[in-house]
Automatic annotation (TrEMBL):
Belongs to the glycosyltransferase group 1 family. Glycosyltransferase 4 subfamily. InterPro entries: ALG11, ALG11_N, Glyco_trans_1. Its EC number is 2.4.1.131. GO terms for biological process: protein N-linked glycosylation. Pathway: Protein modification; protein glycosylation. The lineage of its organism: Eukaryota, Metazoa, Ecdysozoa, Arthropoda, Hexapoda. It catalyses: an alpha-D-Man-(1->3)-[alpha-D-Man-(1->6)]-beta-D-Man-(1->4)-beta-D-GlcNAc-(1->4)-alpha-D-GlcNAc-diphospho-di-trans,poly-cis-dolichol + 2 GDP-alpha-D-mannose = an alpha-D-Man-(1->2)-alpha-D-Man-(1->2)-alpha-D-Man-(1->3)-[alpha-D-Man-(1->6)]-beta-D-Man-(1->4)-beta-D-GlcNAc-(1->4)-alpha-D-GlcNAc-diphospho-di-trans,poly-cis-dolichol + 2 GDP + 2 H(+). Residues 294-463 form the Glycosyl transferase family domain. This is GDP-Man:Man(3)GlcNAc(2)-PP-Dol alpha-1,2-mannosyltransferase. GO terms for molecular function: GDP-Man:Man(3)GlcNAc(2)-PP-Dol alpha-1,2-mannosyltransferase activity. It is found in: Endoplasmic reticulum membrane. It is a single-pass membrane protein.
């Protein structure tokens, strides 16, 4: 009897606590949040009015918390700033960064050294809350928690300085409503990679184990269903956030497709390819066959990772030998596998590839070139005839662009970025070839080898001309065209 009483009391107590929690959450949501929003909105409007009176420059804030990372995303940031500085003189440019250990001088030196980009003076605003966007802070619900963290970080940025134009170059979509509705800014976005993509949803659907899908979840249908709901809700909210941007730029067709399917604002979405560093390659003289020596070189530049699919290239070589049916010709053919080999795992994979080479009796026709210096890499691209790329569904394929710039005839997998963005296969304007399996790769290679020098030259020239759309100049032009409305609005 007593036990039973206790039990009921306990349930009542738990019920009460839950009720209090839920009520306070609802109160927070419907009362405190709107009040806070209205308060901050007013506050920032006042601030803006105050500083508008004694200001003659347009303030542009670039949100890039990892601006000193030295990758491809950072090249976009610095090239964008350079483009704006070239075109507009009445601007004040500010970069929000979380790289507390690097002072402005050090960052700008880094930019000069790595990208060879020289900037007029810019300012940096250092953010101390960057740890809130780091994935290892959150073992569960990483996506949502990171996005909330980015709002928190964005709020720190907004409080430190309220720009006229806010441009996010790292894809933190959850900061857009903050800057747009509270800060009253024009908001631009440059997205390299959607935070959530339909590919991730597919993995959960098919219950595949992957980096975003834990084994326990993949095995359990109920957890999988819960996760799908979570992802769908997240995608919905991500879409609302993304649509707050006034102008959206994406780095490739792949990203464009995903952003269009989640943000659903194609009319203000523009594809602006990032600047690739191909000037030096495009300036190389194209060698004639006689200058390349007696060998016909097929070059692959790819890290030794499974998705790069080196075994496919080796099997294609095996097929090629059968197709050519000419030993003296075959003896002149070399497959050059260039890649970096950094740790034991890489070494093991290279060893596997060497074993496969022996297994297919190709060791006389395959060379491995590991960790070669840049000059030697350029030399290899220059004396090569054909370039190989075998990765399936690569989002872009910068190595293909570089090969085309250097004068290789590229053969790439018929999927992803290579098909959508890079290689044109219409016979009259052909810039390369797309293949599906080892046999097709081999047939295409044989076909290229048997072409006349003139035919090859036509393709090489077309390919080189076509990659200019990935150049720094082209990026500048497209970026300025997309962001032009901001400056038109700000001047009035
Ligand atoms: C776009 O960004 C993603 C993520 O960084 C990258 O994988 C892809 O290669 C980029 N595309 C281009 C065209 O550089
Ligand atoms: C084999 O290829 C060589 C060129 O390397 C060529 O001179 C020769 O005529 C070819 N032989 C046959 C049977 O096609
Ligand atoms: C190459 O692309 C095709 C078409 O997308 C795909 O079916 C095939 O599996 C890919 N091949 C390899 C070796 O990845």
């Amino acid at each position: 009897m007593l036990n039973c009483h206790c039990f009921i009391d306990m349930i009542v107590a738990i019920g009460k606590i839950l009720l209090i929690w839920i009520t306070s959450a609802i109160i927070a949501l419907v009362v405190i949040l709107p009040i806070a929003l209205i308060y901050w909105r007013r506050e920032f409007a006042k601030r803006r009015e105050k500083c508008d009176k004694n200001k003659n420059k347009i303030v542009i804030g670039f949100f890039h918390p990892y601006c000193n990372a030295g990758g491809g995303g950072e090249r976009v940031l610095w090239s964008a700033i350079q483009a704006i500085q070239k075109k507009y003189s009445n601007v004040r440019i500010v970069v929000y960064t979380g790289d507390l250990e690097a002072d402005p001088e050090a960052i700008l030196n880094h930019v000069r050294r790595i990208y060879n980009i020289e900037l007029n003076p810019i300012e940096f605003i250092y953010l101390h809350k960057r740890k809130w966007v780091e994935a290892d802070m959150y073992p569960r619900f990483t996506l949502l928690a990171q996005s909330m963290g980015s709002m928190w970080l964005g709020f720190e940025a907004l409080q430190a300085l309220q720009p006229d134009i806010f441009i996010d170059t790292m894809g933190y979509a959850f900061t857009y409503p903050l800057f747009k509705y509270i800060g009253g800014c024009e908001v631009g976005s440059y997205t390299h990679y959607p935070t959530i993509s339909t590919d991730m949803l597919k993995h959960v659907y098919r219950r595949i184990i992957s980096h975003n899908n834990h084994r326990i979840i993949a095995r359990n249908p109920f957890l999988s269903a819960a996760k799908i709901t979570y992802y769908k809700l997240f995608a919905l909210v991500y879409g609302w956030m993304g649509r707050c941007a006034d102008i959206v730029m994406v780095n490739s067709s792949w990203t464009e497709d995903h952003i269009n399917s989640i943000w659903k604002c194609p009319l203000k979405t523009f594809r602006v390819y990032p600047p690739c560093d191909i000037e030096r390659l495009v300036d190389l003289p194209l060698l004639h066959d006689e200058d390349k020596g007696d060998l016909i070189r097929i070059v692959s530049v790819a890290q030794f990772r499974p998705e790069k699919n080196h075994p496919l290239m080796l099997r294609a070589m095996f097929e090629l030998r059968e197709i050519l049916k000419n030993e003296s010709l075959w003896n002149r053919i070399r497959l050059i596998l260039i890649g970096s080999c950094r740790h034991d795992e890489d070494k093991r994979r290279v060893k596997d590839m060497e074993d496969l080479t022996k297994h297919l009796s190709l060791e006389k026709n395959v060379e491995f070139k590991l960790n070669i210096p840049y000059n030697e890499l350029i030399r290899e691209l220059q004396i090569g005839t054909i370039g190989l790329h075998a990765m399936w569904n690569e989002h872009f394929g910068i190595s293909i662009v570089e090969g085309m710039a250097a004068g290789l005839i590229m053969v790439a997998n018929n999927s992803g970025g290579p098909r959508a963005d890079i290689i044109e296969t219409q016979p009259t304007s052909r810039t390369g070839f797309l293949a599906t399996d080892d046999r097709e790769y081999a047939e295409i290679i044989a076909n290229i080898i048997h072409m006349s020098a003139d035919q090859r030259s036509t393709i090489k020239h077309a390919a080189r001309a076509s990659v200019s759309r990935f150049s720094g100049e082209q990026f500048e032009e497209e970026f300025l065209r997309a962001t032009e409305p901001f400056f038109r609005n700000a001047k009035q």
